[in-house]
Write a structure and sequence with these properties.
The protein is α/β, with parallel strands linked by helices. The protein has two domains: 256 residues, TIM Barrel, CATH 3.20.20; 57 residues, no CATH class. The protein contains 14 helices and 15 strands. The longest helix has 18 residues. The radius of gyration is 21 Å and the shape is globular. It starts with a strand and ends with a helix. The protein binds iron/sulfur cluster. The site of iron/sulfur cluster has 11 residues, from loops.
């Protein structure tokens, strides 16, 4: 079973970000207490009490102090059996990494660091309003690697919607980023195409015509550069946006893609137990107040047969593991002819391949995985 904790605070707002966070840290202590209370309140959500992964996401969990982690881990170990724990990840920003923090995290059993590097280009970092620069990213990597926290994944953003950075310049920045990554011999990378959401600063700039969204062809060209370079470095693309060396897959995120159950704690966190999805309220003070009255503020979506099947298609087709028609039958019963007709069209377009019960996306289909899944959706 898997536990996600959402830590909703950041030093400053990145212009592209639509995650739930606040730059006002005054509620941090109360939030940590509320998260601990929610862990207790939700103790029966997961039937199996053996945790396999814990993931601190956000927001910026590296803003938490040693005392904050102590409270949270104490609560987790009161509720769950940690004897089968395989991975504990913390999302961090390069400017938060210090020897003191690394030692603290290791002492609490945190064994994997997700570092939000995004790019090593300082102009682009400024353009996105990131709080760190490229020098800090390199220092952070050096410090982690020399202090035995080598299980590192980094986040990269490509296809940045920057008018002042034309495609040629963006391509050369991406290539340089990939060369720097090569020098560090990292084992895991997540790379995301920058999408513009209305609620973000970039979304506002697009509305005001100060920023022109990048074309899909540009994004596809950068995606190809990325795949080519990372494959040459020995990475396996095991999910549309994720690359690993030597089978060092992200266990927590793989659980989402494999349709396993998880509990999400904290404001805006999501939970899934095969029958329903829950989403916690995305408001820090309302979350704290409601949890203080021993209730968890969430909305519930009960999953029907087609929701379950479509979730399975959407997640599975993003990965090298693909989907299994036997599993689909277990969810929907007899698979309707419309599914097989749509599958034939996708096979003829060389977007998916089928071998027995197994259906996987081809390298040509990778960039269209969501569209391919929706072509196969059940009503
Ligand atoms: S640090 Fe991460 S969560 Fe915070 S604003 Fe930036 S991208 Fe969003």
């Amino acid at each position: 079973m898997h536990l996600y904790l959402h830590i909703p605070f950041c030093k400053q707002a990145c212009y592209y970000c639509d995650f739930h966070f606040s730059t006002n840290l005054s509620l941090k202590d109360k939030m940590v207490d509320a998260i601990c209370t929610e862990i207790e309140l939700q103790k029966d959500y997961l039937q199996n009490k053996k945790l396999q992964t814990i993931y601190f996401g956000g927001g910026t969990p590296s803003l938490l102090s040693g005392g904050d982690f102590e409270k949270i881990f104490k609560t987790i170990s009161n509720v769950y059996d940690l004897s089968s724990l395989e991975e504990t990840t913390i999302e961090t920003n390069p400017d938060d990494i210090s020897l003191e923090k690394i030692n603290e995290w290791k002492a609490f059993g945190i064994d994997r660091v997700s570092l939000g590097i995004q790019t090593f280009d300082n102009d682009l970092l400024k353009f996105m309003n990131r709080a760190h620069d490229s020098h800090q990213s390199k220092l952070a990597l050096d410090l982690l690697l020399t202090n035995n926290l080598e299980n590192i994944t980094i986040d990269l953003i490509y296809a940045k919607n920057a008018k002042e950075f034309n495609l040629e310049k963006q391509n050369s920045i991406l290539k340089r980023d990939l060369e720097i990554i090569n020098n560090y011999n990292l084992k895991h990378i997540s790379a995301y195409n920058l999408t513009i959401e209305d609620s973000t600063v970039f979304g506002k700039w697009v509305k005001e015509k100060k920023l022109e969204p990048i074309g899909e062809d540009y994004a596809a060209e950068q995606y190809e550069i990325l795949i080519e370079s990372l494959t040459a470095q020995g990475f396996e693309q095991y999910e549309v946006s994720n690359f690993a060396k030597n089978g060092k897959y992200a266990l927590h995120n793989s659980a989402y893609w494999k349709n396993e159950e998880y509990l999400g704690v904290g404001p805006s966190a999501h939970s899934y137990n095969r029958f329903s999805r829950q989403s916690n309220i995305s408001n820090n003070s309302k979350y704290i107040d409601t949890v203080a009255s021993h209730k968890v503020p969430f909305s519930l979506e009960t999953l029907g047969v087609s929701d379950k099947a479509n979730d399975y298609l959407l997640c599975g087709l993003r990965t090298i593991w693909g989907i299994d028609t036997k599993k689909i039958s277990q969810i929907v019963g007899e698979i309707p002819q419309t599914f097989w007709d749509a599958l034939d069209i996708l096979k003829n377009q060389n977007l998916v391949v089928q071998s027995g019960n197994s259906i996987k996306i081809t390298s040509q289909g990778r960039i269209f995985s969501d569209r391919i899944a929706s072509d196969l959706f059940f009503d």
